Design the sequence.
């Protein structure tokens, strides 16, 4: 069973819950973006995802990428699908019109990538890397480089990579040792080895543009000595550059994406941005990239949920409690409480996650395009604080929740047949890349919350309550969480001054507490958009996960609080 | 890096914490079993595990079992290792001397299988199935069958299977439809298809003895119509019987063990026990089998912890908070709080789990051999109530905890190189087989706790406190958990009378609450055995996980309680 996006759910959240078209139309750039256009774009995207990309998921896992003598062959059909994808204009969806893009909102790109990841995580890695490269080149490269590469990257005709990690330099980029030696013609020769390079070599596009962190000869050690370089697979004159794929990794999953070891052998490249500011050039795109990873998590969990839900509605196993009168020999799996709980719980994470991720994508549009500086600052604050939370909490849920969905299949879940175990394997990497989830937690608490004495998060939390207009909603509990978290933040600020290690011990718990608060807020927004739901035919569709949230997800908040408070003493 | 058992930890728990030799010597059968003998047996076992079984783990995963034309070829070295294993007498360790066994305590067998699973889960599946078959044949088969099969199974010269599951009959064995037709000579002809048969076909031993659930022609539908049959791969006259391996499953992990689809084509077999009592014959061995699966979980988690601990002590990455003065460019991974937390938390689960699992194995010895009926009944109660808790909680921890250990490696954890991702994949199945973890929870709460109105669990919980002799220990918190759980049990008993569905909604939470209570008890026993630990060189070895238990594991108790209480209303 190939994945098919459920567009009606996505439209409901974008239109009914978030009223996205109205927000977007307040921006001069998107005055033309109405509800019809948004629906039409996403319906088309969903069609492409379901018809072209999803059918390649299984063989992508089973055949995988093959390596031979420096060449990578992607699984059957991957190249044709990618060629169709970029030629249809999908990578350029949210790129600026002056770069050949369609100039549509980031939120549409976000939904596109959620659907793509759900259908085929491995394949999606390739175009997923374009958007960071586009932003990076657009904002930091010289006009000459832009003229040569920007449109090719915007359109997706050429694919791109991010070459950061080296053996012994993973989370800690300050240890990077690749060297870049300036040449008389203004180019550089790069030498060193990069590992874990997704799409470092493949046959999907005719050229590959590598963005490479390296150190100039006179650079200081540590992160401040790093500069960013553009190194193409094929040089402008058509010759092959000295970037060699030495091998691809054997991985737990994600076999449809080649994870390469790249050796730069005095490879020709050009500097992007200012010497010593390489990390800054990359950090520009980090919130967007991390949001993409959070969306991968949501997509993968959606794919797992769909499989498990379908299986549970079709297969019978044992008597469910209280159902002794059925004519069949056994009851549907979905009628068993433990299975119902698994399914509704994942649904609560997915739906609430979508509200938060799409909100964040809308806020990215505000950051880029809103005329009012103060509104841009609020949006910036939201993205900065919420993105690491989404990345960590929803990739964790993708892995744990898809494993729960696997459980619905019993022994059938452990075998390849139903495709659910692939999701568990594929999703695991999302907890690691683009900054491990532990680093997301430190990013949130240490680098963002404590850095401004808690001011930013306090304002953000307060804004969650002010947007609760409808006083009939049971928002008390959200109110008490906001109050608790605000006070807790102040305690952490005060205590951390004397004990700088403290925050590192409780960062994960703090991130979880924020995630649960945001999730509750998201569900209040869903419930506000469905005031009369009790009477409708599909009431259970939204009421069941809302109940699951209350019963099984939110109790973790008090536990996280108690863990942090015990540390505070 | 191949797994090596840490015998010193195991000896400490058996000898210092549990004082196992003294308990065992109180049994007439084990009067000769002293501390030296126990150490010697386990040291030898550890040697075999480390030298013979562990080195085959990686190729077992990578090469896997191969299927061709009804034959299964196990990975290179598996057959030789298995032949050495049974010839050295390891399968017969705890079998009765009259059956050719060594008559040693079950607890030694338990430790052996924990070590084997840690070293090579796939290989261990083969001998792991012998013990249930041995008990089953010993207690239920006719003298003629016993004469033909019991010693071969006891010694492990012939391997065995359990053929229960069929397509559409997994957790619900009542749906089994394989037919057994009596023949004039007293044998039966079995016809049907069984799936998920571990070791259903292989080249490890010269014969395979299948124990098969099937239905006599006149049997009633449902579980009470099932009988048990013995069907050998080779009949006593040397001819091949009509059991055919149709294929083996492609699985998420456990590639070293063939999971077979077996077709019985009027295959000759003999009844084991009484017609219609097939399930009873199998349930006899269920506690022992489930304990083995719990031990697999502990073994796999130990293996994952060892890998992650070694990596974290060797690799450097970023500055750890509060360590700005080191001469190196970065600090050891183990110095980072989030990583320390992962490692100490798993250690707390493993060490406490060992206390509980070894206690349970000792209680199984009491059940079998204690002269006093009342002591046997107490032991029976412990095994009955604690086994499903260990199976569910420790297999879940094996999967989640090994995934946490994977996180310690960063991106390196996701690739095959370090072997950690194999543990995550292999361990996942333990949450499913021998009764899914959800079924364990129902077994505990519905079939055991509620069935006697809570009397058994109440006595067991009380016994946890009475064994806390040393009033200096901080057992308050255990006392309050016992009190809370006892009251909660009474509430559940009372409420369930009117609402039989309730227990199914909270069974998982109840099991977790019991697991955490038992884990705390286990750690109090460890701490009692180390009264002067603060002064010793390796104090951190036990103090760190004890602290992890308090900080990060036990807070879940209150959360589970709140979830159950919300349901109770």
Sequence:
């Amino acid at each position: 069973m190939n994945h098919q996006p459920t567009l009606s759910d996505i439209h409901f959240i974008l239109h009914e819950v978030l009223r996205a078209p109205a927000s977007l139309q307040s921006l001069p750039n998107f005055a033309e973006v109405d509800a019809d256009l948004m629906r039409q774009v996403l319906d088309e995207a969903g069609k492409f995802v379901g018809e072209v990309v999803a059918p390649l998921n299984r063989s992508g896992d089973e055949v995988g990428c093959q390596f031979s003598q420096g060449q990578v062959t992607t699984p059957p059909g991957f190249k044709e699908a990618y060629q169709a994808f970029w030629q249809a204009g999908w990578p350029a969806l949210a790129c600026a019109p002056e770069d050949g893009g369609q100039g549509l909102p980031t939120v549409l790109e976000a939904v596109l990538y959620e659907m793509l990841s759900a259908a085929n995580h491995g394949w999606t890695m390739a175009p997923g890397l374009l958007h960071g490269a586009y932003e990076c080149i657009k904002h930091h490269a010289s006009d000459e480089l832009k003229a040569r590469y920007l449109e090719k990257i915007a359109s997706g005709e050429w694919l791109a990579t991010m070459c950061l990690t080296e053996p012994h330099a993973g989370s800690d980029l300050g240890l990077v040792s690749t060297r870049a030696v300036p040449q008389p013609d203004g180019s550089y020769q790069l030498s060193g080895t990069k590992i874990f390079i997704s799409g470092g070599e493949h046959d999907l596009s005719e050229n590959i543009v590598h963005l490479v962190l390296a150190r100039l000869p006179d650079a200081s050690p540590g992160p401040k000595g790093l500069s960013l370089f553009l190194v193409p697979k094929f040089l402008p004159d058509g010759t092959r550059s000295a970037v060699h794929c030495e091998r691809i990794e054997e991985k737990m999953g994600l076999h449809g994406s080649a994870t390469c070891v790249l050796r730069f052998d005095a490879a020709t490249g050009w500097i992007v941005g200012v010497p010593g500011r390489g990390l800054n050039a990359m950090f520009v795109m980090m919130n967007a990239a991390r949001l993409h990873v959070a969306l991968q998590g949501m997509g993968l969990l959606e794919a797992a949920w769909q499989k498990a839900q379908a299986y549970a509605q079709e297969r019978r196993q044992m008597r469910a409690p209280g159902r002794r009168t059925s004519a069949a020999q056994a009851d549907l799996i979905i009628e068993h409480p433990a299975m119902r709980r698994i399914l509704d719980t994942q649904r609560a994470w997915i739906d609430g996650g979508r509200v938060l991720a799409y909100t964040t994508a809308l806020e990215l549009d505000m950051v880029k395009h809103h005329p009012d500086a103060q509104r841009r600052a609020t949006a910036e604050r939201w993205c900065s604080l919420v993105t690491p939370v989404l990345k960590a909490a929803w990739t964790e849920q993708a892995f744990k929740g898809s494993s729960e969905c696997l459980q619905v299949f019993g022994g059938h879940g452990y075998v390849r047949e139903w495709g659910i175990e692939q999701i568990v394997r594929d999703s695991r990497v999302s907890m690691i890349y683009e900054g491990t989830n532990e680093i997301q937690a430190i990013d949130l608490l240490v680098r963002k919350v404590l850095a401004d004495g808690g001011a930013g998060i306090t304002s953000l939390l307060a804004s969650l309550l002010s947007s609760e207009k409808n006083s009939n909603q049971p928002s008390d509990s959200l109110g008490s969480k906001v109050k608790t978290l605000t006070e807790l933040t102040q305690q952490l600020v005060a205590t951390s001054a004397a004990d700088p290690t403290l925050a590192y011990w409780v960062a994960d718990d703090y991130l979880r507490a924020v995630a649960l608060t945001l999730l509750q807020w998201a569900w209040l927004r869903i419930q506000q958009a469905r005031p009369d739901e009790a009477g409708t035919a599909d009431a259970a569709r939204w009421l069941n996960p809302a109940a699951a949230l209350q019963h099984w997800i939110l109790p973790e908040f008090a536990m996280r609080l108690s863990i942090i408070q015990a540390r505070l003493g």
